[in-house]
Amino acid sequence: MTATRPDVMTQPTARTCPFDPPPEYRALREQRPVAEATLPDGIAGWLVTGYEEARAVLADPRMSSRRRRLRTGSGPVDDAELPVPTPGNFLMMDPPEHTRLRRLLTGQFTVRRMRQLTPAVEKIVAERLDAMAAAGGPIDLVQAFALPVPSLVICELLGVPYADREDFQRDSATLIRLDASLDDVQRAHQALTGFLGRLVRAKRVEPGDDILSGLVRTGELTDEELAGVGVLLLLAGHETTANMIALSTMCLLRHPDQWEALRNDPALMDTAVEELLRYLSVIQYGVRRTALEDVELGGHRIPAGSTVVASLPSGNRDAAHFTGDPDQLDVGRPYRPHLAFGHGIHQCLGQQLARVELKAALSALLDRFPDLRLALPAEQVPMRHDMLVYGVHELPVTW
């Protein structure tokens, strides 16, 4: 573990409101948008809390996605010093390897193609709501609706059997648990990689009309790379959106004026989705990078080898960028670019799919259950403070 100075701040993690980042971020944005900090895992690094500064980090090719934990200030970082990424996990790669893998997938997630999927997503949403209505309340919205919708969608897109959801959902959750042991993480990763590896080999024999089969047909990727891409897409394709659906629902229920505004004017849903993405920002601790060389940022020299964290939740509350009071939820807020999906070459590949799913899920939920309400006091809802992807573990609701 890297030694830290006693005068260096610790990255804030404690929330006072379930929908807001830690309150200390406001002062940091205003006074020290780039600051030395001890990160939650004890590593000495830099915390970036301003919107423009976070965008600069995420767009800078000198900030590597290949993380390392070595001493800093010893000169430019050689490629050989950085960890070897898991095959297929382009989220942890830099160009040219990142470029090679991502270009194979870009055409699968275009705005046009995602909009073409809208009827299929709406059908899945309607079926889940039918099941909710038949079961009656109270019911856990996470298990009944928020988790099944994106899981079913990503399974259909990738060609993954939905019958295997319990295993891959359990293993995915382990990978983003903050308190998971290294052994547990390795076991979960091996299980997911083995599962996708077997599926890839089956698709080489009998390909279907899905993304994994399409990647197999290109002949450009090894089985290991295909399995790695599959793990990344499967995990990202259901964890983030599931938590956005559930947390957005809870947030709207706790802001009844915003719930009513959407009920009275469904045309607001597009702007509401962008506002909820900005306001909630479920990647709660931010995105990590490693400085490959000394970098000037916000009046500071970031030494080569430093770990840098761009806080997406904090940047998305920056009053210097967003109009009005960014600490208030406003479903009619005029759109300005936000950081919920990151920025730069690693910006979320599935962001258009997430938008389609959020709009379909929230629109139908408002229409079908206008009297939806929490089935227990809000302070008793178990929040995901213990996960890299924030949200709720359960959301008991009734109507």
Can you give a write-up of this model?
The chain has 399 residues and is α+β, with helices and mostly antiparallel strands. The protein has a single domain, classed as Cytochrome P450 (Cytochrome p450), CATH 1.10.630.10. It has 15 helices and eleven strands. It has helices at 24-31, 51-59, 97-106, 111-116, 118-135, 141-146, 148-158, 165-175, 182-205, 211-218, 223-254, 256-264, 269-280, 312-315, 351-368, and strands spanning 9-10, 34-38, 44-48, 63-64, 139-140, 287-291, 295-297, 300-302, 307-310, 373-374, 396-398. The strands form three sheets. The protein has a six-stranded mixed beta sheet, covered by helices on one side. Strands 5-11-10 form a three-stranded antiparallel beta sheet. Strands 7-8 form a two-stranded antiparallel ribbon. Strand 2 and strand 3 (44-48) form a beta hairpin. Helix 5 (118-135) packs parallel to helix 15 and helix 9 packs across helix 11 (223-254). The longest helix is centred in the middle third of the chain and has 32 residues, at 223-254. It is globular and about 65 Å long. The model has no long low-confidence stretch (mean pLDDT 93).
